[in-house]
């Protein structure tokens, strides 16, 4: 038997890490072929996937965008990258194609592969199609669930409510809740638990503007404006910003020339969260990391006018902040688009800083949120579910 080939596609920084962890788990769980060869991994992603042993056609994380206006602006670029990966898949004929998050791109890719195999019935190539991290079909355009059911062999969910949501609508789609990879990752790397944090004399605010260039351009002016107002009321407040890569730090350095009282670092988010009193963060993956470390957080999101006009007509959930959705109430104050002003964010942040009972209440709510995410070992469970497709 020849060794299995896995094609992985991740288009964002968070997905790059998820995919790298999954590859390590697949390597550990896979049996070598009869000739002693290990599984092969290729596709598109980022530096963490490359370090894990994935042969990348290109770094897709460098092209991450969000919102319809940004996608339309870069339509021809994404079509070129899509076609390049499609040709690579047909050439290499992997046993499994795994999309990691990046739902807009990956769902189209999975559908294109399935259409190719349906239109070539005499071809022996019929790869398993897997999506790791559910697209947020429960938040907007729920009809996409039917497309997933038609094209995908397995959906790996990281949030507990998703399996039942799909079961009610598309019961034939195999959905496995594997737990949130963050749980195992931060259990090992956490510096201090929020409960054991020693309070510093000066409170610390953590700024987490996002992992995309456009997010920094839209969020940093608001965050810096809010920080200036906060420090006007509480002059001893310290501020730190954490970014995922040096390229974003370079951009942040340029944008922060008028905001000198802030430390900007690359990586080491767990340590920064363990030392933070509160955070101001983009509504994204990082809000779950704030929740895990028990950090009361003010969340915000700003996008283009066109994207916002479309989104407010199709998004059905009450919040963009995942801990709020999991708790089914507003745990983190959230401000979107025009509501995300320096004044409103500063007001909410000051309320958290000055109200100890409110911070305690939030931390209590976050304990319940995190306890719903399963035990450590999500990547290992995901790997076993993928390998079970061949049994």
What's the helix and strand layout?
Blueprint: E1 5-10, H1 13-29, E2 40-45, H2 47-52, E3 55-59, H3 68-73, H4 75-92, E4 96-100, H5 103-118, E5 128-132, H6 144-151, E6 154-157, H7 162-169, E7 175-177, H8 181-189, E8 204-208, H9 213-233, E9 238-243, H10 246-255, E10 263-266, H11 269-275, E11 278-282, H12 286-292, E12 297-301, H13 305-314, H14 322-327, E13 334-336, H15 342-354, H16 356-371, H17 378-387
Parallel strand pairs: 1-2, 1-4, 2-3, 4-5, 5-6, 6-7, 8-9, 8-11, 9-10, 11-12, 12-13
Helix pairs in contact: 1-17, 4-5, 5-6, 9-10, 9-15
What's a quick, concise take on this entry?
This protein is an alpha/beta fold and 391 residues long. The protein folds into two domains: 5-179 and 375-390, 3-Layer(aba) Sandwich (Rossmann fold), CATH 3.40.50; 192-371, Rossmann fold (3-Layer(aba) Sandwich). The chain contains 17 helices and 13 strands.
Polypeptide structure, described:
The protein is of the alpha/beta class and 391 residues long. The protein folds into 2 domains: 5-179 and 375-390, Glycogen Phosphorylase B (Rossmann fold, 3-Layer(aba) Sandwich); 192-371, Rossmann fold. Helix content is 48%, strand content 16%. It has 17 helices and 13 strands. The protein has helices spanning 13-29, 47-52, 68-73, 75-92, 103-118, 144-151, 162-169, 181-189, 213-233, 246-255, 269-275, 286-292, 305-314, 322-327, 342-354, 356-371, 378-387; strands at residues 5-10, 40-45, 55-59, 96-100, 128-132, 154-157, 175-177, 204-208, 238-243, 263-266, 278-282, 297-301, 334-336. The strands form 2 sheets. The chain has a 7-stranded parallel sheet with strand order 3-2-1-4-5-6-7, with helices on both faces. A 6-stranded parallel sheet has the order 10-9-8-11-12-13, with helices on both faces. Helix 1 links the parallel strand 1 (5-10) and strand 2 (40-45). Helix 5 (103-118) packs across helix 6 (144-151), helix 9 crosses helix 10 (246-255) and helix 9 (213-233) packs across helix 15.
């Amino acid at each position: 038997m020849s060794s299995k080939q896995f094609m992985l596609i991740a288009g964002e920084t968070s997905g790059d890490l998820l995919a790298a962890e999954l590859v390590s788990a697949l390597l550990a769980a896979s049996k070598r072929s009869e000739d002693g060869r290990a599984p092969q991994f290729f596709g598109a992603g980022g530096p963490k996937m490359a370090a894990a042993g994935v042969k990348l056609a290109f770094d897709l994380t460098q092209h991450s965008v969000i919102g319809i206006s940004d996608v339309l602006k870069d339509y021809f670029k994404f079509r070129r990258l899509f076609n390049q990966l499609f040709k690579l898949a047909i050439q290499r004929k992997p046993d499994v194609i795994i999309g990691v998050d990046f739902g807009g791109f990956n769902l189209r890719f999975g559908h294109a592969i399935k259409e190719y195999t349906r239109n070539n019935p005499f071809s022996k190539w019929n790869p398993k199609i897997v999506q790791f991290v559910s697209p947020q079909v429960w938040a907007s355009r729920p009809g996409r669930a039917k497309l997933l059911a038609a094209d995908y062999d397995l959906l790996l969910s990281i949030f507990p409510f998703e399996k039942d949501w799909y079961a009610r609508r598309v019961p034939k789609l195999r959905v496995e809740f594997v737990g949130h990879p963050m749980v195992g990752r931060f259990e090992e790397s956490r510096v201090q638990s929020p409960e054991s944090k020693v309070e510093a004399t000066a409170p610390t605010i953590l700024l987490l503007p996002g992992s995309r260039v456009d997010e920094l351009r839209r969020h940093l002016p608001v965050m810096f404006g809010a920080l200036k107002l906060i420090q006007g009321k509480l002059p001893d407040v310290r501020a730190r910003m954490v970014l995922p890569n040096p390229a974003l730090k370079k951009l942040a350095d340029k944008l922060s020339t008028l905001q000198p009282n802030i430390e900007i670092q690359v990586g080491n988010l767990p340590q920064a969260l363990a030392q933070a009193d509160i955070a101001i963060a983009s509504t994204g993956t990082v809000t779950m990391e704030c929740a895990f470390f028990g950090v009361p957080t003010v969340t915000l999101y700003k996008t283009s006018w066109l994207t916002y006009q479309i989104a407010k007509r199709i998004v059905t959930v009450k919040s963009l902040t995942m801990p709020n959705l999991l708790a089914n109430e507003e745990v983190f104050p959230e401000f979107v688009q025009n509501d995300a002003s320096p004044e409103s964010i500063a007001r909410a942040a000051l309320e958290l800083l000055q109200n100890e009972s409110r911070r305690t209440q939030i931390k209590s709510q976050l304990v319940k949120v995190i306890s719903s995410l399963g035990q450590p070992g999500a990547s290992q469970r995901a790997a076993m579910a993928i390998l079970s497709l061949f049994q």
